[in-house]
Write a structure and sequence with these properties.
Distance between the termini: 30 Å
Radius of gyration: 12 Å
Strand order of the largest sheet: 1-4-3-2
Order of helices and strands: EEEE
Helix content: under 10%
Number of strands: 4
Shape: globular
Largest sheet: 4 strands, antiparallel
Structural class: mainly beta
Strand content: 35-45%
Number of helices: 0
């Protein structure tokens, strides 16, 4: 995608990366895709993981500071 077609990049913190894969895991709400995990790394103290995700353009309007994310496992 060109830069103008991309949405913002967000950062999410989880306890574990179980079920997440950079470049593959999709962010969805009500089964509608609005982004994808782009990278996963550990926090400095190794207690959590930091997930970076790229959103689809124009989806950021639905997020706030209080937006919560979770991992659904099959």
């Amino acid at each position: 995608k060109t830069y103008s077609e991309q949405g913002p990049t967000i950062t999410i913190t989880f306890r574990t990366a179980d079920g997440l894969e950079a470049g593959k895991t999709k962010l969805k709400y009500k089964d509608v895709e609005f982004g994808q995990v782009s990278s996963i790394k550990l926090t400095e103290d190794l207690s959590r993981v930091i997930v970076t995700a790229k959103l689809i353009k124009d989806t950021e309007q639905y997020l706030t500071e209080k937006t919560r994310f979770w991992v659904e496992r099959a």
